């Protein structure tokens, strides 16, 4: 320890001891009746000190914890911060807050080791960010995965309904979910989903035709439209039931859609930042409508699970439904590994995927709209796309992958050391949170030539496509043992939707990004374009 660090630690401890002695002395005055007047006089004279003491003690306690964390990792280049915030707070959380992923990467480049790695000591924990060094990512996600679990402080927010395959913290817990969920993403389910995605997109285009009539041949793209498609596809492919989100006569469909969006936006963030407060968290859930949203969703999904069980019990030999829930219930019935809450959680987690960023990139780069339409015409002509067409819609798949490279749904893959380990040249103490930055590695010029440029053709080489998804260059679906189980589901769903809408509509970006009207991502669990202005017209 340096003399400067030792002096700082001694000063803080001395201040804490002095405050404790002062409080002990004056608490005795309170208890002593004969000194009551003296105490009241002291309160009048020193009331500012009494008011200031609790927050001051909390601050000093936080500084001691911060210094203690710093001592464990001071050999790693980096800095200090009080806490990770849901939003920017000047002086208190100017860099480390939800959504500021590029700012955190810049911080790593400025304060880190020159290789894009940086250590940040918070009051509650130490944090090690890896932004582009793929060799370290391989150690974290493959070679030493047994010593790195998912941090509950982060992934507990996905447990709104119960633990799921995404939020399972340990390998053993993940295996329990994977044994059941793996059966739900078979070729059988993917074929069923592709058919449903095409049908649901036709419901969307019916809605768009009405808007064209009411808008003199044009209208503004609404990101919620694709959320509706994703949710309805999930209803049909996930639960074999329509959620009614496109049915104007069914109010319950709109309420269900709003409830799901509430859970996966406000609900998750609330659980992330307030979940550890037993009084404040339930109160906030009621105030912001999260409790009511949970009631709406649970009522519908509990009924679906019960119906599926009854159907299977009555027709065990002929039960052949291909939706995710049916396949989950069927697989789970053999060993009863998952609770009903976990079944719901594993099915609903796939609502987080979306295609809004694809529309942004295609509207910004209209030449790829034209190329995609040529491919759609060549492969499909007037047919509706199906599972069997997916491999032939190569450019559409490349467009989706390139969009995910630039706009990944999640910013990073977070782990927490369950013992002290070595990663690269650094000793990582137990309980340190380690973050493999998806945004960092996928937008790094050292990994991707012309990294900031939208170039779908870079994915046309299938050998390169496979390599990028295995050499830690592309992590949008994670990698290794815990690679996203629904990655084919997401890619195929996007392909079916895009094949339908690009055949009929043209998208034009109205944001003047050169003049500062830049499209930015929302600051939530997953990122969506927040201020996107796209004009839609009929071809």
UniProtKB/TrEMBL annotation:
Its cofactor is heme. Heme binds at residue 484. The chain crosses the membrane at residues 48-68, 80-99. SUPFAM superfamilies: Cytochrome P450 (SSF48264). The keyword Glycoprotein does not apply. Belongs to the cytochrome P450 family. Keywords: Heme, Iron, Membrane, Metal-binding, Monooxygenase, Oxidoreductase, Transmembrane, Transmembrane helix. The keyword Oxidoreductase applies. One of its GO terms (molecular function) is heme binding. Pfam families: p450. This is Predicted protein.
